[in-house]
Amino acid sequence: MRQNKVTDLEQQKRLVKRFKRTRLESFYEDEVLELLLSLAFPKKNSSLLARRLLERFKGFREIFEATQEELESVRGVGEKEAVFIRFMREMAGFYLKRRLKRKSVVRYPGDVLDFLNLTLSEERNEKFLAIYLNAKNEVLGVVILYEGTIDQMHVYPRKVIEHALKYNARSVIFAHNHPSGDPTPSRADLELTMVLEMAALAVDLNVHDHIIIGRHSHFSGKENGWLLGGINKLSNIIHPLHRLLSESHKKP
Predict the structure, then answer these.
(1) Which of 117, 227, 228, 231 counts the most CB atoms within 10 A of its CB?
(2) Which of 140, 130, 137, 103 is nearest to 192 (CA)?
(3) Where on the phi/psi map is residue 156: left (φ > 0), alpha (ψ -120 to 50), or beta?
(4) Distance of alpha carbon 112 from alpha carbon 57, whole angstroms
(5) For 252, how many CA atoms within 13 A lie in the half-sphere containing its CB?
(6) Whole-angstrom Cα distance, residue 132 to residue 196?
(7) What is the CATH number of domain 101-250?
(8) Thinking of the domain 2-92, which architecture would CATH place it in?
(9) For the whole model, what pTM was predicted?
(10) Are 69 and 25 contacting, i.e. CB atoms less than 8 angstroms apart?
């Protein structure tokens, strides 16, 4: 037992030394997980624990998207270990959200997608959120407007307007996830976009986009012609959306 502890300590030192020299560029998934676990739980056999987690969940990403109960089902993973793994994922989202603040989404659109993909792509229930922006398109705040079951979600325009007034926002980006993993929009998604943009017009709030997050890809309403007019061109919003709604009725 004593020899195993020495071996684990030496392995941790080697991994730490490599990380200081090369960051994570030269690490395999199991080594990243092993280093993380060894730093958090030095008395555990981190190599064995990392191997068991990867055998159970098949991948690094799947481990960090597992539930508390799923993690605790792995031999050697207790409540503290499971909470730590889930905390690390939440902390990453917390960091990305803070990194967005006061940053222009026009100059750094990838940061928005990074945040949305991390926080929404593997959610098992639907979440609908709004990213509020100032006149410089800098992020003022991110608000979860609704969180519901997989097959039911309601977003009220009143809440959108209330938060816009609270932040004194000039524009907004809407986003939600499809727990199925497929970001293809539904007719209800299109109708909701139309309702929210109409409500936004009433308070001169510009809707930049409505992004739907899937497991490995996303859908942009702006890129697909959903948001054409802006706050001063009401007819440009109504007519294209009416056409798109009509076309969706014809599809089987």
Answers:
(1) 227
(2) 130
(3) beta
(4) 28
(5) 0
(6) 14
(7) 3.40.140.10
(8) Orthogonal Bundle (1.10)
(9) 0.73
(10) no
